Model the fold of this input.
Amino acid sequence: MKDHIKFILKNSIIFGLISFGFSIIGGLFPSSEHTSVIGNPLVVSGITIEHIVGHIFWGAVIGLGTLSIRYIVLGGSFAILIDADHLLQFLDIELVSRMSHSIPFAIIASMIFFLILRGKDLRLCVVAFGAVLSHIAFDIFLADVAYRTDTEFPLFSPFTLEAVKFQGLDWLGIQIVGVVIVAVMSYLVKRKEIRLKNNLTKT
Done:
């Protein structure tokens, strides 16, 4: 049990630091039309209990594809920790909003975990990727259900800061993609583990 808790805490801290570090890039474009002083996140970002619980639940659903409790928990943890970028808003500096809500960030986070773990835990890598998709999916869902509006993200930042708009059931497609990616990789990893185990048994 202690090992599971240590695993979850350690990787959650790493993911939070990656999200925060990536979001700092959003302060490197002071002359961009997409840059602004966003303001205190407690005032302007609409952080509520529903927002927090929703992100955790959506992320946990992504982790279900692994059929492992610790990856389910990490899916929820990663999904809410993407909002570590809100901490920068307390500094009242000009930023590109939602930098970590992007595909490049999802890829970079996955690659960092791959490098740290030397490729020994591919499930963790895809959960990190899927958690980003789940976070975006819930933001779209919340905007549509709670506010009856669309929402947008700099989906390909930092390569382009143009925001991409989403609305309606777009969240469902993005969430499904996340679940499928995690489930397929988990299946392949499990099949490889079984094959190696069978080979060892034969020898």
Remarks:
- The first strand starts at residue 35 and ends at 37.
- The beta strands are 35-37, 94-96, 151-153, 164-166.
- Residues 2-202 form one domain.
- Residues 65 and 182 are 5 Å apart (CA to CA).
